[in-house]
Amino acid sequence: MKKIVFVILCFFVASGFQLLASDILFASGTEVMNSYGEKMEMDFKLYDPGSGDIVDYSNYGTFKGIGTDQYDYKITDRKGLAAAVGEGIYPNNSVYKDPAYKMLVMKGKLSGGQWDYVSMEDQQLAFYKWATTQESAGVKLFYTGLALEKLGQTLQAVKAYHAVVVHYPKQVGWTVWHTPLYVGRVAIDRIESLTRAHPELGLKLEGARIKVENGYDFDINNDHYSIDPGRLVKRSPEALKVRRLDVSKLAVEKTVGTGAAQLVRFQNGHWQMRVDGKPFMIKAVAYSPTPVGKTPDKDYSLDAWQTADLNNNGLVDGPYDTWVDANRNNEQDAGEKSIGDFALMKRMGVNTIRFYHHPLSKELLRKLHRDYGIYVILGDLLGMYAVGSGADWYEGTDYTDAAQQEKMKESVRKLVSEYKDEPYVLLWMLGNESNYGDTGSRAKDTVGFGSQARRQPEALYRFANEVAGMIKSIDPTRPVGFSNGDVVTIDVLSKHQDQIDVFGTNAYRGASGFGRSLWEDARDFMDKPVLITEYGCPGYFRGKPAAFAEEKQAEYHRGNWEDILYNSAGSGIGNAIGGVVFEFVDEWWKAGPPPQFSPSVQETVGQFAADFPDGWMHEEWLGIVGQGDGNSSPYLRQLKKSYEYYEKAWNK
C-alpha cells in the first residue's frame, strides 16, 4: 500500500550569485567526523551567527494585514536585519564570505542539483548548497534551516524557519503525490518541535498561525490565507518543560460507545480511549507476514498466513512457530526456540493489531486475545484498491455507482454481523488512505489505487459516513473510524462525519513526528479523537551498514511515538489516542512486479523520494522485525532496534 510522504518538489527559480575565482580562500585543518560518522572538510562553525537569539522583526520593518490574506512584511532596515539573523538567513548573504564555503566551491564539493543534498550524510555541504542555491526563496530558506538543524545548529535553524514564516508564508511546494505543501506551516511545526525538544534554548514561538482556506485539496488557485507570523519570546527552560495535566480530575462531557471500548471527551476538549473503564493508549502494529518468495496477488493471499502450516506441525506458522535469530547468523542455534509473532508482540508491548480487511479466523483471534491480551481493529477497505466494490482495477471504484455501493455495504454488513459479538474487536475502521484513490493504469510507470476517490471526495466521504451509520445500527457498542491519507481533503470530510467517531490518518511526515498542524487540523475540522492508522520508516539506508540504518529507523519511530504521546489527553492538542506501526515484519514482494523485481530478493532500490533517512522509500524494509537472508522464511525473525525501542517505551 502506498504511503503519503512530504517531500517538496519546487519548480521556481530565484536569481543566484556568482563566486569569482579571486574570492576563493584556502582553509586548512584536520578532517573531522560529522554526526553521521563520515569525514567532513572541517569542523562546522557558523561564520556569522547573527547578533542575538531572538530577532524582533518589528525593529527592522513593518507588518501589515496580520491575521488576513493581505499579510505583508516590509523591511525598512535591511542592514540591521541581516546583522541580526546571521548566515544563511534572508536577507543576510554573508555565506559568500565564509572561508569554508569558498574552499568547498574550489574543491568542487558543491556541484550538482540542490535536491541531491537534502538527505546526504554531510549536512555541512547541504547547508552551503541550500544557502546559495537558485531556488524559490521560501523553499531555499526551509532547507537551509533543515541542514542547520541536522548540524546541531538548533538556534540558527529556528531563526531560519521563523524567517520562512515572516517573509514567505504563502510559499507552496508539492508532495510526491502532487498535493500542495505549505512551507510556512511546516516551518511553524519545526519550530514548535525544536523548542519543545530543546527547552535549554529558552525560546517559544507565540501566536504563529497560518490557516489556508481551501488548502486541503489539490488546487492552490482557490486558496485564501490567514497569517500571523507570531513572535519568538524568551522563557525559562523550567517553564518550557512539558507538564501533563491529570485529565482524570476533569469532567467528561461526551462518551462514545456503550461497550467495553469507549471514547471520552473531557471538558477541556481532550480525548481518551478507555477499555473496561481504564485509559487505553492504542499501541498497534499492522501484521501481514508474507513469506519470502510469495506474492499476495498470486500464490499467497493476504489472509493465507492465518492458516499456513508449512512444517505440518499443527500450528500456524507466523503466530506460533517463528524464532528469534539473536546472533543474526541466519541459523536456528541451540536455545533459539520457537516463540511465535504473537508472543513477540506481547513482549514488545503491543495491545492491538490492525487488520485492513476480512475474512479473519475467529479461532485464531480468540487465542490472540485470550492468551496474549491483544485486541484487533477490524477493517473494510470500502472500495479502496477496488476491494469489495466489484469494480475493475483499471476503472476503479466509483462511489457514485449504486450497484457498487450496495456491494460495499454488503461487505461491511457481513464483517460487522459476523464479528460484533467477539470480545477482541476494539473498533471498526473503514478504508485506508482512501482519499488518495486514483484509477489503475496500464502504463508501466504509473501506479493506481483502483479507486476514483481522488476525483470524488464528496461522494467518498458521504458514502463512508452513511456506512458508518449502518455499522452503528448493527453494533452500537463500538466506535467507528475512517482512515484518511494525512489531512488531504479533511475539509470535505468534515461535512460528512456525524457517524464517524475516530479520525484515522496514515501519516509519514518525518523523524520528528507529525507536526502541530496535523493535530490542530484534526481538532479544528473534525473534533474527533485521532488514531495514526499508519506510520513507520524503512530500516535501510543506501551505502550504510545495517546497524546504522536500523538506528535511523529507531530514531524515526521514537520521534513519531513521542509526538503521539505528547498530543494525547493531558498534553499538546490532546486528541491522540494511539498509533499503528507499519509494519511488524518485512515483506519482500512490495518493490514491484516481476521480472524487474523478485519476491525472493529484498530490494534496495528506492521506490520514490520521501522524508526517510536516506531520502527514499524502501517498502520492503518497513518492518521492525526482519527475515534475515530469507532462507528460513517464514520462521526466522531478526529484531531491529525499533523493536527494542518499543519494548522499552510500550512497557513503561
Overall description:
This protein is of the alpha/beta class and 652 residues long. Helices cover 27% and strands 17% of the residues. The protein has 16 helices and 27 strands. Strands 15-17-18-19-20-21-22-23 form an eight-stranded parallel β-barrel, surrounded by four helices. The chain has a four-stranded antiparallel sheet with strand order 11-12-13-14, with no helix packed on it. Helix 14 (515-525) links the parallel strand 21 and strand 22. The protein is globular, with a radius of gyration of 26 Å. Residues 1-30, 34-38 and 442-446 have low confidence and may be disordered.
Short overview:
The chain is of the alpha/beta class and 652 residues long. The protein is built from 16 helices and 27 strands. The relative contact order is 0.10.
Shape label: globular
Total of DSSP H or I helical runs spanning 4+ residues: 16
- Distance N to C terminus: 32 Å
In terms of DSSP E residues, the strand content is 15-25%
Helical content (DSSP H or I, runs of 4+) = 25-40%
Name the poorly predicted regions.
Answer: 1-30, 34-38, 442-446
Q: Roughly how many Å is the radius of gyration?
A: 26 Å
